[in-house]
Structures are given as structure tokens and as C-alpha cells.
Specification:
This protein has about 230 residues and is of the alpha+beta class. It is built from 6 helices and 10 strands, in the order βββαααβββαβαββαβ.
Length: about 230
């Protein structure tokens, strides 16, 4: 299925293949200009094992994921992600570029399946190639065009400046909003050095109305403050 692209998209092509079922409401194959996505549990196990063994600690520094020490760690991870997918609790994808598994991305639905959170991590050598923007285009189109979502939200650890700048780019392209900072348990970001037990977490979102407005910009929901006034 070819999806008609939003005029603010940076990708030229978006291919989605899926027959939606109660066990798999999210697409099981997504392809953009440079990358494709498959459920992590459908990818060759040795490829997943290598990904978590060989990815540098720098990649995991700002994320909840971590290096798998033993093959059984990877096995249990893959099994849990298959169960999460079937139960529509989390849709975890492997990110593939030129036939190689280079990272992980996910769509995390609300209990009502009417809103989604998404995230991404890639091996260090693939940073700066625009893959985050391609992923955002794909997942936003799928959420609003196929899954009838009302809202998409995304965030990052405050210290993750690269991710913040990437998020700002696509939230701005789709006329989204900044909602301020929430707080996450330090345990979720095991590698982040912080003097407190919580991690400051800026949060953004794009609603269905904002997405289809075809406008651009980032608004702030903080009373009396425009986005340009905010200091991170």
C-alpha cells in the first residue's frame, strides 16, 4: 500500500504492507527512501544478537535499552516483544538499511489504542543521516492515516541534545506542541549521570488536527511562554 504523503514530509516514498488483524493492528513491513522496518521478533535472531552485542555504550547512554550480556538475554527480549506485539502493548521494529539491522524503533500505544508514543535508537555510525526524520514521517503517517490515532507524543532525556534537535525538526514540520518537562525514573536511563533520582524529560506532541492542518511551527502549552522563549 502506497500512502499519500503529507506535503511537509521529507521522504519521497512510503510503502506499507499489512493486513490488519486483532493480533497485528500495526503494519508488519514499512519502507521509506533509505530504511525499512520489520517487527523485531521476525528478524533473524543472530542479527538481533549482534545488534545488542556490538552497539556501542554511547548509543545506550540516553536510552532505557542496554547491551545484552548473554544470548538468553536477547532471546527473552525477542520473546517479550512478540507477546507485546500480539497484545498491542508495544510495536517494536528493527530498523534495516542496505540489508543490515542498524537499530530499533517502536510505536507504544495507549491502552485505548488512540494515541502513540514513539522512539528510536541507531548504531553510532548511522547518526546524522536523516533516518530519524524518515522514521518520523513514516510513523506519523501510519498513526494518523491507518491507525486513526488522535495524538502522537515523543520525548527524550534533557541531556540528549542530538535527539532533542531531531525531535524539534519533525515536530516543527508537523505543527506540533511542546508540553514542558516531565520526570522519569533514573533507573530507566541507567547510564545517565545525574545527581538526582529522576531525569528531566522534555515532551512534545502532534495531534491529528495539527498534522492535517498542513501548517508548520512549534507551539507551547506553557502559559505565557512561546517556544522560542524556552531555555533547555
Amino acid at each position: 500500500m502506497d500512502i499519500k504523503l503529507h506535503r511537509n514530509a521529507v521522504i519521497d516514498d512510503l510503502l506499507v504492507e499489512n493486513t490488519s488483524t486483532v493480533d497485528s493492528i500495526a503494519p508488519e513491513y514499512i519502507e521509506t527512501d533509505s530504511i525499512s522496518f520489520r517487527p523485531i521478533y521476525q528478524i533473524d535472531f543472530n542479527s538481533v544478537l549482534r545488534l545488542f552485542r556490538q552497539t556501542s555504550d554511547e548509543v545506550f547512554y540516553h536510552h532505557g535499552d542496554d547491551r545484552h550480556i548473554l544470548p538468553d538475554d536477547t532471546r527473552e527480549y525477542v520473546k517479550s516483544q512478540k507477546q507485546n506485539w500480539i497484545q498491542s502493548e508495544k510495536f517494536e521494529y528493527g530498523v534495516i538499511h542496505n540489508g543490515e539491522l542498524i537499530g530499533v524503533s517502536y510505536l507504544n500505544p495507549s491502552d485505548e489504542l488512540d494515541s502513540f508514543e514513539f522512539g528510536l535508537w541507531l548504531q553510532r555510525e548511522y547518526w546524522g543521516n536523516g533516518f530519524s526524520q524518515e522514521r518520523a514521517d513514516a510513523f506519523l503517517h501510519i498513526a494518523f492515516s491507518l491507525l486513526d490515532a488522535s495524538f502522537i507524543f515523543v520525548g527524550c532525556a534533557l541531556s540528549n541534545v542530538r535527539s532533542r534537535h531531531s525531535i524539534e525538526k519533525y515536530v516543527r514540520r508537523y505543527n506540533g506542541s511542546f508540553f514542558g518537562c516531565s520526570f522519569k525514573s533514573k533507573g530507566h536511563y541507567r547510564s545517565v549521570d545525574e545527581p538526582t533520582d529522576v531525569i528531566k524529560h522534555p515532551d512534545w506532541g502532534v495531534s491529528k488536527e495539527q498534522f492535517w492542518s498542513m501548517e508548520t511551527g512549534i507551539s507551547s502549552t506553557i502559559p505565557g511562554s512561546s517556544y522560542e522563549d524556552i531555555e533547555f
